[in-house]
Amino acid sequence: MPSAIFMSDRSEAERAVQESEQRYKRLLTSVTDYVYSVTVDQGRPAATVHGPGCEAVTGYKSSEFDSDAFLWYRMVYDEDRPAVTAQAERVLRGETPFPLEHRIIHKDGSLRWIRNTPVPHRDDQGRLRAYDGLVSDVTERKQAELALRQSQERLALVIQGSSDGIWDWDLTTNQVYFSTRWKNMLGYADHEVEDHFSAWERLLHPDDRERALTCIQDYLTGRSSAYELEHRLRHKAGSYRW
After folding, report:
1. How confident is the model at residue 126 (pLDDT cuts 50, 70, 90)?
2. CA quadruple 135, 141, 142, 144: dihedral, nearest 10
3. Separation between Cα atoms, residue 214 and residue 159, nearest integer Å
4. What is the pLDDT of residue 165?
5. Exposed e or buried b per residue across 85-120, where buried means at least 16 C-beta atoms within 10 angstroms of its C-beta
6. 231 φ, ψ (degrees, to nearest 5)
7. In the prediction, which pLDDT does 4 show?
8. What is the pLDDT of residues 143-196, one digit of tens each?
9. Do 30 and 56 contact (CB within 8 A), yes or no?
């Protein structure tokens, strides 16, 4: 009987260890940052230690970095290597460079964006002895920025090819965008009409002012479900256009 109890206790302990390891692995895969440390000897990197979170960001374990001194450099995307090298050289000169965002090739072959923030450590004489760094996975943000930029470029092409004037009004800043075509329809060059709500007000026909502003206010306060307005604006030549 005592032997059976011992075996049961050991099984429970093994299950607890397995559950703990699984929780650790799940936590590790969710980490998007990790810390590394570089020891410097006579102005050159002597040893580098990558924290355990490196596997979640790069796909490689700390032990793999330990056994391959050039693994990190090979991971860096070819086009970004000059910037990465320049950052490391600035650190070794004793400078504190700005964080650098660049691409790496993950162990699974995918392209990732990381942000590398080094922090130098100096002795009492100001000599560089080591530096630590924080590596953050910023892939999702970079992909969102790229998608936004592509969307903006497509919108710019649509606006450029449109025969109608296009405007956009930011209600929080009162900043207004008038397309070049919008201004040209009134005889103005692009620089002759400022991108501001007051510019539209100045061009508005006096007899249309009250109706136009009421229409805008009704839409902003929800009294009308859509904003649509026919009104007159002053042409550069002095006449008014509908």
Report:
1. confident
2. 170
3. 28
4. 87
5. eebbebbbeeeebeebbbbbbbeeeeebbbbbbbeb
6. -155, 175
7. 57
8. 999 888 888 888 778 777 777 888 988 888 888 999 888 999 999 999 999 999
9. yes
Q: Which amino acid is at 109?
A: G
**Could you please report the per-residue DSSP string of 124-155?**
TTS-EEEEEEEEEE-HHHHHHHHHHHHHHHHH
For 115, residues 6+ apart whose C-beta sits below 8 A from its C-beta are: 99, 100, 101, 134, 135, 136, 138
- 175-178: long-range contacts (C-beta < 8 A, 24 or more apart)? 176/200
Q: What residues contact residue 202 under an 8 Å CB cut-off, 6+ apart?
A: none
Identity (one letter) of the amino acid at 200? Answer: W
Q: What pTM does this model have?
A: 0.59
Is the model's pLDDT at 45 over the cut of 60?
yes
Check pLDDT > 60 for residue 1: no
CB neighbour class for 137 (10 Å; exposed up to 12, middle 13-18, buried from 19):
buried
Q: Return the half-sphere exposure (C-beta side, CA atoms, 13 A cut-off) of residue 90.
A: 15
Tell me the C-alpha distance between 96 and 79, whole Å.
Answer: 23
